[in-house]
Inverse folding.
């Protein structure tokens, strides 16, 4: 059976990308990272990818008049590399239905909050402002809404007295690095079944690892 080919979309330094690369290189994820794309030419994620011999390219949003033109170029790169699974690792743009339909059911995202609470771009700020005592992160399928797709995995972290956005983000990021590769592995191993909003995790195949 052919390996899944993963296309990773990033916007920044790519720390979640690094955790995925490590998992693939360890053999924990039986897939190939086929290409890394960033919407900023200066994104360090591109350097991380190239250091591991992974094709990488910048597709800069401001160079395109329309969002659909930008997304069409992203899709051209993904298709050219045979990508079967799209992973959003700190990609700070909302994808339109045009893009989502091209990879329906095959896009995973990591969000730094316990969805459905605090969707959007300012999750840590919003969580602290609300006064929650527990925050965390969520891996979910991407649908045509904003951080609204079916939930695959979540991890919780305590919110400490005096936390800032930065201190909370650092604590949550450790959990992101743990559960994002785990969720990708479940997908690649064929252990996810979606029934409406419910994502069921199937047991491993006989003789397989947990």
């Amino acid at each position: 059976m052919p390996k899944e080919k993963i296309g990773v979309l990033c916007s920044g330094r790519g720390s979640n990308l690094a955790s995925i690369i490590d998992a693939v290189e360890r053999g924990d994820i039986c897939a190939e990272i086929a290409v890394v794309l960033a919407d900023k030419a200066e994104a360090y994620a591109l350097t991380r990818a190239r250091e591991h011999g992974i094709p990488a390219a910048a597709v800069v949003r401001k160079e395109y008049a329309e969002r659909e033109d930008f997304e069409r170029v992203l899709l051209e790169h993904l298709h050219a590399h045979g990508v079967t699974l799209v992973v959003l690792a700190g990609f700070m743009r909302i994808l339109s239905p045009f893009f989502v339909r091209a990879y329906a059911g095959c896009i995973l995202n990591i969000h730094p909050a316990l969805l459905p609470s605090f969707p959007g771009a300012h999750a840590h700020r919003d969580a602290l402002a609300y006064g929650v005592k527990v925050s965390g992160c969520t891996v979910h399928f991407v649908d045509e809404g904003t951080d609204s797709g079916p939930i695959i995995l979540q991890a919780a972290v305590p919110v400490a007295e005096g936390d800032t956005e930065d201190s909370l983000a650092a604590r949550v990021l450790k959990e992101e690095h743990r559960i994002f590769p785990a969720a990708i592995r479940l997908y690649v191993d064929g252990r996810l079944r979606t029934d409406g909003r419910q994502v069921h995790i199937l047991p491993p195949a006989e003789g397989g690892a947990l």
Q: What stands out?
A: The radius of gyration is 17 Å. Helices lie at 15-26, 44-51, 67-80, 97-102, 123-130, 165-188.
